[in-house]
Give the backbone structure.
Amino acid sequence: DVRYNCTMIDLHDRSVIASITDRHITSDLAIRTLDKAFASPKSISPDLILHSDQGVQYPSKAFIEYCDNHDVTQGMSKAGYPYDNAPMERYFNTLKNEEIYLHQYHTEEQ
């Protein structure tokens, strides 16, 4: 089964603030991940800028409303230009090559 991961990192120190994996890539997954980030012990700046790619979940009405209601400013990379989102591209490359591709997963919890 395919799984989709939504992760939020702090660009200052590249630490993972929140990460959730699900069977579907939806605005709900992005919202739950941002909720988890807000609940994390790491202090989140009140002038938060959330930079993302242009995945369907981020420009969705539900996610935009969530961001507006929580004073989160959205910034998106240009279509077809992954360099704007390089820190996340690097994170997912490392995650896949140093963890996911090296192991077999038999349950959702793994």
The chain has three helices and four strands. The domain at 4-102 is CATH 3.30.420.10 (Nucleotidyltransferase; domain 5). The chain has a mean pLDDT of 87. Strands lie at 4-9, 16-22, 49-52, 73-76.
